[in-house]
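Two quick folds needed for the group meeting slides. Do the first one here.
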Amino acid sequence: MKHVFVINPRAGKRDQTTRIYDMANRLRTQHALECACMLTDRKGGAAEMVRKLAERGEALRIYACGGDGTAFEVANGIAGFPNAAMTCIPTGTGNDFLKNFGPDLVKFSDAENLWDGDVFPLDLIECNGHLCLTIACTGIDARVADSVHQFSRWPLLSGRGSYLCSVAANFLFRPIGRQWTVTLDGQTEEDAFALVSVCNGRYYGGGSTPVPEARLDDGVLRTILVKNVGKAAFARLFGAYSAGRYRELPPELIRVSTAREITIRGEEPFVTCLDGECFHWQEARLRLSDRRLNFFGPRGCDPNATAR
C-alpha cells in the first residue's frame, strides 16, 4: 500500500510543507511504509493528481494536507475508486469538515494517529458534476464566502478583515434575498429566498451548524430553506440558524426537507458554495451521489460525533 501526502503549501497562515515532509519520513522509517509527498500548484491540481494515481489500481491512502478546499479536491479525485481512501491533515484556516469528528479533530494533525486507522464510507452531495463532502450552500452565505476571496486580494486586508468587508458588502449594501425556483423531489416552489443549504455534514462558514442532526453516512440529505426577510429580521434569526436551533424559528420562514433531488433555478447567475469552493451557475442540480468516499481516521473515530 502506498501512502501519499497531497500538500497545499498556500493553505492556512503559514506554509507547513516541511512539517508534512517530516511526518511522512517518520512513517517511512518507523513503520516501513511506502510514502510520497506531492505539492498542489494550482486550483484543481490535487483532484487531477489523485485521480491519476487511483486509476493505476494500486492500494492508496491519501492524506489531504490543507483546508476544506484541499479535502474537496481530493474527494472529487478518488470518490468511487475502491482501491483509494483519504483522510485529512488540517493546515487550513477553517477545516470545517473535521469538526464533524468532535474531540478527535486534534488527532488528525498527526499522521501517526491516521496511517493504520479503519476505512469507512461517507456519503457525498453531487452538484452539477462536482462532489461535496459537507454543505452545498446557495444564498447570502455563499455570496459572503465568494466575496471573501475577492476582498482577500486587497493588500491591506487580513483574513479577518476581508471577511468583515464581505459581510458588510453583502448584508449592509445588497439585498438579502433572491428570486428562485426551488424544486424538491418534483415539488416546485417559486419565491424569494435568503438561502438554500443542502447538508450532508453539520459545519460550514467557520463553525455554523444549520442542521445539527445531519449525518455523513446515513444516506439522507437535509436541505434547509430560509425565505427572504428584512435585514433586521435576518440579523435576529441568524444566531439561532447558525446554532442549529431552526425549530425555534417561524416555520413559514425556515424549514428542513429530506428531498433526495434538489434544483435551484434563477433568472440570473448565482453563487453556490461547495465545501467553501464557489461556483457561479444559473441552475444548480443537487442530489445524493451514487458514489461514496472511502475515508480513514484515528481508530474509533466517529464522523457523527457531534450530531444531535
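Then this one, please, same format:
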Amino acid sequence: MEINYTMLCDFYEITMANGYFRSDKRNELVVFDMFFRTIPDKGGFAIFSGIDEFINYIKNLRFSEKDIEYLRSRQFFNEDFLDYLENFKFTGSIYAMKEGTPIFPGEPIVTVVAKAIEAQFIETFLLLSVNHQSLIATKTNRIVRAAEHRGVMEFGSRRAHGPSAAILGARAAYIGGAVGSACAIADIMYKVPALGTMAHSWVLAYDSEYEAFKEYCKIYPNNATLLVDTYDTLKSGVPNAIKVFKELGITKCGIRLDSGDIAYLSKKAREMLDEAGLTECKITASNSLDEYIIRDLIYQGAKVDTFGVGERLITSASNPTFGGVYKLAAIIKDNQMIPRIKISENIEKVTNPGFKKVYRIFDKNGKAVADYIALSHEKPSLPLTLFSPTEPWKKCTYDESFCLVELLIPYVIDGEVVYQNSDVVSIRKFALEQVETLWDEVKRFENPHKYYVDLSQELFDLKQKLLNEHRVK
C-alpha cells in the first residue's frame, strides 16, 4: 500500500511554513545542514544510511485533499496558504554523502539548499530516515566486526519498533554487514537475503524430537539446520540431530543453539558432531547477543560459525537513538551568502556557519586520515595544513602523496533527482570497503582513537567572527 508521508512532520514545520508564506521570506533561499554530535556506543565512527528513503519522500512530496481539509479544520491557516500547498513541490537542491560512508560528528552529512518553506518542512522526515537507518547500520557493523568474519544474521523483526522499523532496519543491517535477515518482506523490497529455519514450536508439534527433526530434514534436505535446545541440548538435541543427518545422508547441515551457555555447549556439540564425521555441520548461536557477548564467546573458544542477533541489533538497545540534528547554516539574499550560527553554552552544540563542502583525506595506502570542512567557494588542494578547531595549536600537513575526495554529492538539483542510489548489495559492498579504509585504532569498541574533522582557516575565522559579533557584552 502506497502511503503519503507528506504529513509525517512536526506541526511547527507547517506553522512556520505559513509564517514564511505570509512574510517577506516566502521565496528566501536558505541552507540547512544535517549533522550529528556523538557516535552511538561511544564508538569511533558511524555509517551513513537512510538517504534513499528520504529521496523517495522528496519525489512523492505532495498535499492531498484530505491533508488540506485537515489543515483547514485546524483554523490556523488562511486560504491563500492552503491554495499554495495544493501545488506544493520541492524545488530546491540536496547534497549528501553516499550511503554506506563512514561519518563523524560535526560534519554535514546532508545539506539542503531551498526556499525556507521547503527546507523547513522536510526536516522531520530527513531526520527520522537518516537517524534510524544510520543507527542500525552502525550497530550492525560493530556486531559484524566482533564476529570476526563469521556470518551475522538479523533476527529482530518481532522486537522492532513497528513494521517500518523492522523492514528498514533489516535494510540498514544488511548495509552494515549482516549476511541476511529473518524479515521476508525485506528480501522482496530490497533483496536482503531472507534466512531462517525453524522455531521450538516445530519440535513441540511432533510426538518426539527425533520425529520433528527427521520430517524437517526430509522437506528441506538442502537447508537442514535444526534447533537443538527444546529439551536437552547435549543429551537429546544434538544426538537426535546427528542420528537424523546420518540416517538421511545429509552432510550440508547445521544446528542452532538458542539458550544455555553458548561457549560450553558449542564446544561440546562440535566434539560430538566431529566424532560422528559431521565435520562440515555448522553451528549457529542466537539468544540476546550483541558485540560484547559475541566477542567474549570467541575469546572463550566458542565453536560458533554464524550468529543470529535480534533485539539488541534491531533496536540498538545499548544506544537506541542517533542524535542527528538539522540546523540553519546560511541565508541567501540577492545572491549573497549570509552565514548563520547557533550558539550554546555546550561547545558541541555551536554550529558551523555557511554553505560548506566536506573532503576526506586518504594516504597513499588508501587509509582515511582526516576530514576537512571548507566553505563551498574554497578550492582546497595539496599540500594542505589542517589544525584542530578545538585545539588549534595541533597541526598536520598533508603533501601531494595524499589525496582529497569530496564527500557531499548532489542528489537533487532544482527539484529534480539527479542521483539514484545503487542497489542494496552494492551499497553494502561500498560500506564494508569504506570501513576498511579506517585505521584499526578508530574501530576499537572502547576508547577509540579520535578521527579528526577539521575546519578550513577561512571557515574557522568566520565562525570566530560570528561568535564575537553575537557575544553579549
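Slide caption for protein two: The domain at 11-136+321-353+405-449 is CATH 3.20.140.10 (nicotinate phosphoribosyltransferase).
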